[in-house]
Design brief:
3-stranded antiparallel β-sheet; 3-stranded parallel β-sheet
Length: about 130
């Protein structure tokens, strides 16, 4: 279970430390976003740049899992043993109008692939082009 500790405060700002199963993240933090299947820079290379956590898209992994019948472990898939945050894929709703998953399915899938931090599937509202 992730835990968060506030390390320092200054007015409304705070510096913290988030502990996950695969390591620590000092906050605030920037996480590079990694495509789960097509990577220009390998996640392991992010360590040498100074990132000890990355983010990827759980909905893309879910789609491939449904298509191929494969089961995935996100840490093995990315070959990255530090903290991995998975996004739900809600952006695809903005792009394509819908996705084929419910918020509950995304949460269960993120757990099943071993996400350290999972983002719930939210439905964007009020967006017009």
């Amino acid at each position: 279970m992730p835990t968060f500790e506030v390390r320092k405060t200054d007015l409304a700002a705070r510096i913290g430390r988030l502990r996950t199963k695969h390591g620590f993240i000092e906050t605030p933090a920037i996480l590079p976003v990694i495509h789960p299947f097509n990577q220009t820079i390998k996640p392991k290379e992010m360590l040498s740049i100074g990132f000890n956590a990355v983010m990827t898209n759980s909905y893309m992994i879910l789609k491939k899992s449904r298509l191929t019948g494969e089961s995935f472990d996100v840490h093995r898939l990315l070959d990255f043993e530090k903290t991995i945050m998975t996004d739900s894929g809600a952006y695809q709703i903005l792009e394509y109008g819908r996705i084929e998953a419910t918020p509950e399915e995304i949460v269960e899938f993120e757990k099943s692939i071993g996400s350290d931090i999972g983002v719930i599937l939210d439905t964007p509202t009020g967006f017009t082009r």
